[in-house]
Structure formats: C-alpha cells, structure tokens
Amino acid sequence: MDSVSIIGMISVITAGLTIAIGSIGPALAEGRAVAQALSAIAQQPDESATITRTLFVGLAMIESTAIYCFVVTMILIFANPFWDHAIAAAGG
Amino acid sequence: MDSVSIIGMISVITAGLTIAIGSIGPALAEGRAVAQALSAIAQQPDESATITRTLFVGLAMIESTAIYCFVVTMILIFANPFWDHAIAAAGG
Amino acid sequence: MDSVSIIGMISVITAGLTIAIGSIGPALAEGRAVAQALSAIAQQPDESATITRTLFVGLAMIESTAIYCFVVTMILIFANPFWDHAIAAAGG
Amino acid sequence: MDSVSIIGMISVITAGLTIAIGSIGPALAEGRAVAQALSAIAQQPDESATITRTLFVGLAMIESTAIYCFVVTMILIFANPFWDHAIAAAGG
Amino acid sequence: MDSVSIIGMISVITAGLTIAIGSIGPALAEGRAVAQALSAIAQQPDESATITRTLFVGLAMIESTAIYCFVVTMILIFANPFWDHAIAAAGG
Amino acid sequence: MDSVSIIGMISVITAGLTIAIGSIGPALAEGRAVAQALSAIAQQPDESATITRTLFVGLAMIESTAIYCFVVTMILIFANPFWDHAIAAAGG
Amino acid sequence: MDSVSIIGMISVITAGLTIAIGSIGPALAEGRAVAQALSAIAQQPDESATITRTLFVGLAMIESTAIYCFVVTMILIFANPFWDHAIAAAGG
Amino acid sequence: MDSVSIIGMISVITAGLTIAIGSIGPALAEGRAVAQALSAIAQQPDESATITRTLFVGLAMIESTAIYCFVVTMILIFANPFWDHAIAAAGG
Amino acid sequence: MDSVSIIGMISVITAGLTIAIGSIGPALAEGRAVAQALSAIAQQPDESATITRTLFVGLAMIESTAIYCFVVTMILIFANPFWDHAIAAAGG
Amino acid sequence: MDSVSIIGMISVITAGLTIAIGSIGPALAEGRAVAQALSAIAQQPDESATITRTLFVGLAMIESTAIYCFVVTMILIFANPFWDHAIAAAGG
Amino acid sequence: MDSVSIIGMISVITAGLTIAIGSIGPALAEGRAVAQALSAIAQQPDESATITRTLFVGLAMIESTAIYCFVVTMILIFANPFWDHAIAAAGG
Amino acid sequence: MDSVSIIGMISVITAGLTIAIGSIGPALAEGRAVAQALSAIAQQPDESATITRTLFVGLAMIESTAIYCFVVTMILIFANPFWDHAIAAAGG
Amino acid sequence: MDSVSIIGMISVITAGLTIAIGSIGPALAEGRAVAQALSAIAQQPDESATITRTLFVGLAMIESTAIYCFVVTMILIFANPFWDHAIAAAGG
Amino acid sequence: MDSVSIIGMISVITAGLTIAIGSIGPALAEGRAVAQALSAIAQQPDESATITRTLFVGLAMIESTAIYCFVVTMILIFANPFWDHAIAAAGG
After folding, report:
1. Radius of gyration of chain E from Cα atoms?
2. Residue N91: pLDDT above 80?
C-alpha cells in the first residue's frame, strides 16, 4: 500500500470513531442535566427562569466537548495536513 | 488490494459503526429526559407547558450529537474526499 | 480476494452490525420512557392525555436514532455506491 | 477461498449475530415496561385499561427495533444481493 | 480448507452463539417481569387476574425475541441455503 | 487439517460454550423470580397458593430458554448434520 | 498436529470452561434466593415451612442449569463421540 | 510440538482456569448468603436456629457448584483420559 | 512503509482518539455538576448566586482537563515535532 | 521450543493466574460478610456470640474456595504430573 | 523501520493516550466533589465559606493527578530522552 | 529464544501480574470492612471493643488471600523450580 | 530492531500507561473523600476542624499511591537501569 | 532479539503495570474508608478518637497491599534475579 492509501484509510476510520465515541459522553451528560432541570422545575416552579438559564449555560459547556470532537473530525476530513502532504508528495 | 478497494472497504465499515455507536448515547439520554419529563408532569401538572418546552429544547440539544454522527456518516458514503481522490487516481 | 468480494463481504458485516448495535440504545431508552409513562399514569390518572402525548413525541425522537441506523443499513445493502463502483469496475 | 465461500461464510455469521445482539436490547426493554405496568396496575387498579393500552403501544414501538434486526437477518439469508451476485458471477 | 468445510464450520459456531447470546436478554427480562408480577400480587391480591393476564401477554412478547433467535438457529442447522449451495457445488 | 477434524473441533467448542453461556441468563432470572416469590410470601402469606402457581409458570417460561440452548447442544453433539456429512464424505 | 491431538486438546479446554462459566450464574442465583429466604424467615417466622419448601423447589430449578453444564462436561470427557471417532480413525 | 506436549500444556491451563473462574461465583454467592443470615439473626434473634439451618443447606447447594469445578480440575490433573491416551500412544 | 507515512498515520489516529476519549470524563462530570446545581437551586433558591458562582469555578476546573486533551490534539496535528523531523529527514 | 520449556512456561503462568483470579471472589465475599457482621453487632449487641459464630462458619466456607485455588497452585508448582513426565522424558 | 521512526511513533501514541486516559479519573472526581459542594451549600448556606475553601483544596489535590499525566505527556513530546538519543544516534 | 529466556520472561510477567491482580480484591474488601466498622462504632459506641476485635479477625482472614498471592509471587521470583531446572539444564 | 530501540520503545509506553492508569484510582478516591468531607461539614459544622484534619491525612495516604506510580514513571524515563545497560552495551 | 533485551523489556513493562494496576484497589478502598470515617465523625463527634484510631489501623492494612506491589516493582527494577542472570550469561 502506498502512503496516500494509508493516510486516507486511517483518516476515514479516525474521523468516524472520533465523533462516534465523542458523542457518547456529552449526550449522556446533557440527558442528565435536562432530566434534573425538569425535576427542579416541577419541584420549584417559581425559579424556572433561574433554572432554565443555568441549564442553558451548562448545556453550552457540555456541548463544547462534543464540538471539540466535531471540529477535529472536520479537520481530519477536509483540512488534514498529513493528507495534503501525502497528496503533494505523491503528485510531486 | 488496490487503493480503491481499501478506501471503499474502510468507508463502509466506518460509516456503519459511526452511526451505530453514535446513536447509543443520544438514545439513552433522550430516554432519560423523556422519562423525567413524564415524572415531572405527573408531579406538577400545572407546569406542563414549561416542562414540555424545556424538554423539547433539551431533546434538540441531545439530538444534535446524533446528527453530528449522521452527517459524518452521510459525508463518508456520498461525499467522501478520500474516495473521490482514489477514484480519480485510479481512473487517471 | 478481488475487490468485489471484499466490498461485498464488508458490506454484509457492516449492515448487520449497524442495525444490531444501533437497536440497543433506542430499545432500552424506549423501555425506560414507557415504564415511566405507566408509572406517571398510575400516579396522576387525570393527566393521562398530556402524559401519553408527551410520551409519543419522545418515542418518535428516540425512534429517530434507530431509523438513522436502519436507513444506513438499507443504503449499505441496496444502494451502496462503493459496491456499485466495484461491480462497474469488475464488469468494465 | 473463492468469492462464493467468503460471501456465504460472512452472511451466516452476520445473520446470526444480528438477531442475537439485536434481541438483547428489546427483550430487556420489554421486560422493564411489562414489570412497570404490573406495578402500576397494582398501584392504580382503576386505570388498568389506560395502562394496558399504553403498554401495548409501547411494546409495539420497542418490538419494532427487534423486527428491524429480524428483517435484516432474513434479507441476509434469503434475499442477499451480494450472494446473488457471487452465485451469478461464479456460474457465469 | 474447501468451501464445504468452511460453511459447515461457520454454521455450527453461529448456530450455537446465536441461541446462547440470544437467550440472555429474554431470560433476564422474563425474570424481571415475573418477579414484579409476584410483588404486585402480594401488594394487590384482588387484581391477580388482571396482573396474571397482563404478565402472560408480556411474557409472550418477550419470548418472541428468543424465538426469533431459535428460528434462525434452526434455519442455520437444518435449512441453510449457503450449505445447500456448497453441497450442491461440491457434488456437482 | 482435514474437514472431519475441523467440524469435530468446532462442534465440541460450540456445544460447550452454548450451554455455558446459555445457562447464565436463565439461572440469574430464576434466582430473581424465586427470591421475589419468597419475599411476596413473607409479605402476603394468604396468597401463597397464587404466588406459587404464578412462580412455577414463570419458571417454566424462563427455563424454556435454557432448554433451547440444551437442545442445540445435544443436536450439535449427537445429531450434527454437518458432522454426518463430513463423516460420509471422508468415508466415501 | 494430527486429528487426535486437536480433538483432545479442544475437548479439555471446552470441558473446563463449560463447567467454570456455567457455575457462575447458578451460584449467584442460588446465593440470591437463599439470602432472600433468610430475610423472609426473619420477617415472617410463622411461614418458614412454606418459604423453605418454595426455596428448595426454586434451588432445584436453578441447580438444573448447572447440572446441564456438568452433564455436557462429563460427556465431553468420558463419552465424547468426536474423540471416539478420531481414536477409531487413527487406530484403523 | 508433539501430541504429549500439547495435551499436557492445555490440561495445565484448563485446570487452573477452571478452579479460578469457578470459585468466583460460589464465593460471592456464599458471601451474600452469610451476610444476609447475619442480618436476619440481628433482626429476629429468636429464629436463629431456623436461619442457621436454612443457611447451611443453602451453602451446601452453592458449594456444590464450586465442587463440580474442583472435581473437573482434579480429573484433568490426575485422571485425564486424553493425557493417558497421548502417553500410551507416545510410549507405544 | 516509509517513516513519513508511519508518523503521519499514527498522528492522525492519536489525535482523534485523544480528544474522543478525553471528552467522555469531562462531559459526564460537567453533566453531574450542572444537574446537582439545578437541584440545589430548586432546594435553596436564596443561595442561587453562591451556587452559580461555585458551579462556574468547578466547571472551569473540569473543563481544564478537556482542554489539556484538546491542546495535545492540536499539537499533534499542527505542531508535531516528530512529524516535522520526519518531513525534514525525508526532504534532506 | 522443546517440551520441557513449554510445560514449565505454562505452569508458571497458570499458577500465578489461578491464585490471582481465585483470590478476588473470596476476598470480596469475606469483606461483605465481615461488614455485615459488624453492622449486625451494632444493631443487636446481645447476639454478638451467635453472630460471631455464624460469621466464622461462613468465613470458613468462603475461604475454602480460595484454598481450592491455592492447592491447585501448589500442585502446579511443586507436584505437577505433566512437568514430572516432561522431565523424565527429556532425561530418559 | 528504523529506530527513529519507532521511537517517534510510540511517543506520539503514548503522549495522546496518557493525557486521554489520565483525564477521565480527575474529571469524574472533580465533578463529584463540585456536585457535593453545591449540595452542601444548599443544605448549610451559613458554612459556604468553609465548604468552598475545603472544595478548592480538594480540587487542587485531584487536579494534581491530572497534572502528573500532563507533565509526562509534555515530557514525551518536547523533552523525550529516548527520542533525543535516537536522533543523536541517527545523526552520528 | 532459548529455554532460560522463556522461563525467565514468563516468571517476571507472572510475578508482577499475580500480586497486582491479587491485591485488588483484598484491598476493596478491607476497605469495605473498615468503612462498615467505622459506621458501626458511630452507631453503637459502647460495643467498640467487640466491633474492633471482630474487625481485626476479619481483616486477617481477608489479608490471607493477599498473602497467598504474595507468597506465590515470592516463590516465582526467588524459589522458582522451573527456573532452577532451566538454569541447571543450560549449565549442564 | 536492535536492543536500544526495543528498550526505549517499551519504556516510553510503560511510562505513559503507568501514570495514566495509576491516576484513575487515586483521583476517584480523593473525589469521594472530598465529597464526603463537604457533606460532613454541612451536617456537623462544629466539627469542621476535626473533619478537615482527618480529610488531609486521608488524602495524603491516597495520594501516596499516585506518587508511587509517578516515581516509577520518572525512574523509567530518567533513571532506567535497563536503558543505561542497553546504551552502554551499544556504545561498548 | 537476544536474551538480555527480552528480559529487560519484559521487566520494564511488568514493573509499570504492577504498580499501576496494584494502586487502583488500595486507592479506592482508602477513599471509601476515609469517606466513611468523615461521615462517622459527623454523626458521632464524641467518638472521633476511636474512629480515627480504627481508621489508621485499617488504612495501614489496606496500604500494605499497595506496598506489596511497590516492593515487587522495586525488586523487578533494581534487584531482578532474572536480569542479573541474563547480564552474567551475556557477559560470561
């Protein structure tokens, strides 16, 4: 196998696994936060504004780790420096 | 094996595993959020409007991680730059 | 092994595993939501209409991740671009 | 090994594993839903009609993911396009 | 190894694993449902008829996933199209 | 290795693993059901007849999945069609 | 390696693993049932006769799955048809 | 490697693993039963005779699965028919 | 494979896995902290300012471990000293 | 590798793993029993004699499974019939 | 593969895995501590100063284990004595 | 590789793993027993003498399984009969 | 591969894994202790001095196990006797 | 690879893994004991002397299993009889 095939093959695998594995943690964490928010609203309806605001800040923090993974996945597919080098080397 | 076969083979595997693994977390998280929403409605029926609205925002956030995986799967099947390169190289 | 065998073999494996793994999460999540819905109805019978409606929306959201997997499985079996390419290349 | 053997061998393995793995999640989920339904009936006998109806809708939703797996298994055994192609190629 | 040995070997392994893995989920689920039914009867003896009837419907649903696995196992042992093809090809 | 050795070797492994793995689920499930039955009798002694009867029906259902595995094990040891074919082919 | 060595080697491994794996489930299940029986006796001493009788029936059911494994182990060591065939073939 | 080495090597591994794995389940189960017995005695001191007797019967049942494993281990070390055959064949 | 391909291939894999695995822990931990914060606000609304402030400090600490992983990932993709050395050596 | 090396190598590995794996279950079980005994003494100080006696009988039963493993380990190191045979065969 | 490639390749893998695995424990532990701190503040608002101070000392202790991992990662990337030796040896 | 290297290599691995794996169970069990002892003392200070005495007997029993592992480790490092034989054979 | 590469490669892997795996247990244990300390302060503010002091002694004990791992990691990187020997042998 | 490299390589791996794996159990166990001690002090401040003393004895017992692992690690690095033999043999 030549270098282009190897780098391409590995990039495909890694891109998929990165977002697949990386979405498990954030999804479960968001599910937990949302579930607790609903429970808190049911328990203390008068504070629903504070609860909702805190929830959204928290969800944004949690979502950030999922977005790290998505960014790395997109870099590996569309702006992969190793692939660019291999293409340039193969075409040189 | 030539380069086209390798990239194709790997793309098929990765596409399937990405959506399969990536659907576990969001599904479980949505199940937890929905279950808690039902419990909250039963506990505080008067707040069902607020609870339902918060639930839908939360489900949208959680679903987003599943959609990241689905997008990557579709890119790997139908707009795979590595595959396009391999086809072009093989046909060149 | 020639290219057609490889792509075919991998497609069969991936199709099966995708739907098998991808059905675990949604099934468990739906089981949890349904169980909680039954508990909520028993606790607050007067809200059974609201509970049932919220349950069905939630089940639809959860089922969507299972359907993502089913769609990818069907694409891999019946509309697989990599397989089509391999067949065309082998027949060319 | 020739192409027919490979595709056949892989189809057998995949067919078995798909239904075996795919039955774990739905079975556990249905067990949970049924158990909760029985608990709900014991707690609120007057709502047994509503509970039973909701249970059956939920079981149908959960069973659907098991049926996805069963359908894929049957396709892989009796209507496998990759196998048909291999047979045709070997017999051609 | 010739094609007949391979298909036979794989069919034996798959048949055994399918029913072995496939019996874990239904068995645990039935155990949970039965345990809850006994608890419900002890809690609400007057509803034992309703509870028992719902239990049996639920057990039938759960058993169905075990039966899917058993059917696939039997097909793989006694009506395996891949094995029939291999025998025919070897004897031809 | 000749075909007879392979089929024999695989049959031995599969027979053992099928009953070994297949006995875990039913045993745990029966343990749970029996434990809950004892708890229910202690809680509601007057219903011990109903509880015992429901328990035995449930145990029969759970034991059925263990028996599926035992049947497949016995078939693989004493009525294995793949082994019969290999013996016939080797002796022919 | 000749056929006799292979069948013998595999039979030894399988015999050991079958009883080793197969004793985990029944042991844990019996432990659970016995523990619950003791708890039930402490809670309702007057029903100790009924509890003990139900316990013994349940233990017999659970032990049956361990005995399935033990029987298969003994068959594999002392009445193994595959080994008998290999010995006969090697001595023929 | 000759046949004697293989059978001997495998027998050593299997003997060790059988008793090692096979002691986990019974040990945990006995620990649970003993713990519950102590709790029951503390709760109902007047029934300590009944509790102790039931405990010992239960421990004997659980210990039986450990003894199955020990018996198989001893057979594999000191009365192994496959080893006897290999020795006889090598010395013949 | 030459040195450039190896280093590139390994860097791609490691970059993806580092952020994927490294996002699981922080995401779950943030989900837990946010959920508890919402619960605390519902329980003690008057302290929401203190709770929110403590929450944000804690989230920053937890996020720091995710950022360690992201920094290492970015170093491996865009400022990898091993890759720079390999490129220089290959171009020398 | 000659037969003596193989048997020796395998005996070393198996001896270590047998006692290592075999000590997990008994240790955890004894920890549970001791912990419950302390709890029972704190709850019912007047029965400390009965509790202690039952505890020691139970610990002896649990320890017996650890001793089975220790005995097998010692046999494998100091009275290993397979090793004795290999030494005799090599020295003969 | 020459020595420089091997050391470089291994250093990349190890650097990534060290920080990835090493961030799981501290993140979860900090999440637990923060969550409990919020709960404690809600329960005893008057002690929020003591609680916050103890929390920060504890977080510093926990963060130290993550920092150990980060230090090792940085050493492996930027001050790796094995890599320095390999470069010197290759350039010598 | 010669026999001395093999036996030495295996002895090193086994010695380390035996004590590493073998210390997990006893450590956790002792932690549980100590924790429960502290709880019992807090609950029933007057019985602290009985509790402490029972705790120490229990800890000695649990520690014994760790000591089995330590003894086997020391035997494998400093009094290994297989190593002694290999040295003698190599030096003979 | 020569001896220097092997020892170096293995030392890098082991150094990273030792601190990575070795930081999981202490981090989780410290998180648990800190969380419980905060809970104890909230419950008994008057004893915060005793609690804090006991906490710090406990954290020091737990941190010691992490430091064992860190020490071994540093020895493997900067004072590795096997590496020193390999360098000396290669340079001799 | 010569004997010195093998023994050295294995010793490095084993030394690291032994202390890494061996620190998980004691760390978690100490965390549990410390946490319970803090809880006990909060519950019964008057007994803090007894609790603290019992805690320290227990921590010493638990730490002993970690020290077993540390001792074995140090022996493997600095007083390894197999390495000494290999060095002597290589230098002889």
Report:
1. 20
2. no
Using 50 as the pLDDT threshold, list the residues of chain K that sit under it: none
Contact M18 N20 (CB under 8 A): yes
- What residues of L are in contact with residue N13 (Cβ under 8 Å)? 13
Contacts of B18 by beta carbon, 8 Å cutoff, 6+ apart: A16, A17, A19, A20, B69, B72, B73, B76
**Fold of the CATH domain B3-78:** F1FO ATP Synthase (1.20.20)
Taking an 8 Å cut-off on Cβ atoms, the answer to whether F40 and E36 are in contact is no
Whether I38 contacts chain K with CB within 8 A = no
pLDDT of residue K68: 94
Predicted confidence at residue C92, as pLDDT, reads 59
What does CATH list as the number for D7-80?
1.20.20.10
Q: Is B45 in contact with C40 (Cβ distance < 8 A)?
A: no
D4 contacts in chain E (CB < 8 Å): 3, 85, 89
Cα(B86)–Cα(B10) distance, integer angstroms: 13
- Look at domain F9-79 and name its CATH class: mainly alpha
Give the model confidence (pLDDT) of K78-89 as tens digits. Answer: 999 999 888 888
- Residues from chain L contacting residue N41 (CB–CB below 8 Å): 42
Cα I64 to chain centroid, rounded: 7
K vs C contact (3+ beta-carbon pairs below 8 A): no
Domain G30-81 matching CATH 1.10.1040.10: the answer reads no
| Min distance G60 CA to chain F CA atoms (Å) | 11
pLDDT, tens digit (0-9, with 9 covering 90-100), for B52-68:
999 999 999 999 999 99
Shortest Cα distance, chain C CAs vs residue B86, angstroms? 12
CATH number assigned to the domain covering K3-86: 1.20.20.10
Q: At what angle do helices N81-91 and L3-22 cross, to 10 degrees?
A: 160
**CATH class for the domain made up of H3-84:** mainly alpha
CA pair distance I28, K31, nearest whole angstrom: 8
> Which tokens is F63 given?
């034991």
Tell me the average pLDDT across J34-52. Answer: 91
Contacts of I79 (CB under 8 A, 6+ apart): none
Q: Tell me, what DSSP letter sits at residue C46? A: G
* Residue listed under structure tokens 């960014």: A71
Which chains contact K through at least 3 pairs of Cβ atoms less than 8 Å apart? I, M
Say yes or no for a CB contact (<8 Å) between N28 and M30.
no
Closest by alpha carbon to F34, among G56, G87, H24, D50?
A: G56
Q: In this predicted model, what pLDDT tens digit does every residue of N48-90 receive, in sequence order? A: 899 999 999 999 999 999 999 999 999 999 999 999 888 888 7
> What fold characterizes domain N3-87?
F1FO ATP Synthase (1.20.20)
The pLDDT score that the predictor gives to residue J92 is 59
Burial profile G56-68: b = 16 or more Cβ within 10 angstroms, e = fewer: bbbbebbbbbbbb
Looking at CA atoms only, how far is residue M4 from chain K in angstroms? Answer: 8
Q: Pick E8-79's CATH classification: 1.20.20.10, 1.10.150.120, 3.40.190.10, 1.10.720.60.
A: 1.20.20.10
Q: Tell me which chain G residue has its CA closest to the CA of residue F14.
A: G14
CB–CB contact A41 B51 (8 Å): yes
CATH architecture for the domain at I3-91: Up-down Bundle (1.20)
ipTM: 0.87
